[in-house]
Amino acid sequence: MKKLLLLTCIFIFSCSAFFAQEEQESQIDTLTPEDEKDFVDDQNMTVTEVEELIQSQSAIHRIDFVFGIEPMVSINTHTKDSDGKFISAPSPIHIPFYIGLSIPNYTAISFQPTLRFFTSYNLVYNDMVLPAEIENRTGQTFNFLLNLPVVFKLNYKDKVSWSILAGLAGLFRFATPPVNIKETEPGYTGTVKSDVNYMNNWFYKNVRFLYLSAGIDWMFYYGTTKFGPEFSIFFPISAIMDKSVDGLLIGAGIKVEF
């Protein structure tokens, strides 16, 4: 009789614990984004606790969407010729926006592919494609910077974390004749059209599209949303062949993950 009573108590306790856990998981899974933030804030959860919460949910909840705006300077060392005459624009500043994913989120190591977009003006001089001021341009270039870094979160401190990013990037560029400029107008190689064709070939010679990327960010947590400043650098592999750091990209901006 005592054994039966003991087994009954154990069974009832196990069932209660099981259904309590199921109810909590069901409650978390059905939270809206705003309710989820309130839930996290009400519980006064640390970064580690948020990580455990996210990992207990389905795979889609383990992916963060990334959005950022990061002004970047593109280094140009060929602004003057040997006589001191200006031949191209100084190192231009671009203001790209970007989108991406963090896979998975809230882990010490993750993968964070992003895609940046910006436009620029270019000209041809000797055997180079250089940045151009608007009055001297013979090509308008659409730039797509695909960054494929691995993210290493090195430190957690309550609701703040900082990370180091390192990986490869590809700068995919496509030049077209600028607006209000005809293809038949004069260019360095003959016409604007031939300049554009030269640019589109030059962009991909000597692996000029391939970059090494590195960066650091400092993220603040507000519920399950993270935001903060970031610093990035993109080093062109072609610098070895071209013996020039032209095309080196250095950026600083704001990143949001949600």
Tally of contiguous helical segments: 5
**Proportion of residues in helical segments:** 10-25%
Strand order of the largest sheet: 1-4-6-8-9-12-13-14
> How much β-strand is present in the residues?
35-45%
Distance between the termini: 57 Å
The overall number of domains is 1
CATH class: Mainly Beta
Average of the residue pLDDT scores: 83
Radius of gyration computed on alpha carbons: 26 Å
Largest sheet: 8 strands, antiparallel, barrel
Structural class: alpha+beta
Low-confidence stretches: 1-31
CATH topology: Porin
Q: Architecture, CATH level 2?
A: Beta Barrel
Order of helices and strands: HHHEEEEEEEEEEEHEEHE
Outline type:
elongated
Number of strands: 14
How are the secondary structure elements laid out?
Elements: H1 2-29, H2 33-42, H3 47-55, E1 64-69, E2 72-74, E3 93-94, E4 97-102, E5 109-111, E6 114-125, E7 128-131, E8 139-157, E9 160-176, E10 186-187, E11 190-191, H4 192-202, E12 210-222, E13 225-236, H5 239-242, E14 249-257
Antiparallel strand pairs: 1-4, 1-14, 2-3, 2-14, 4-6, 5-8, 6-7, 6-8, 8-9, 9-12, 10-11, 12-13, 13-14
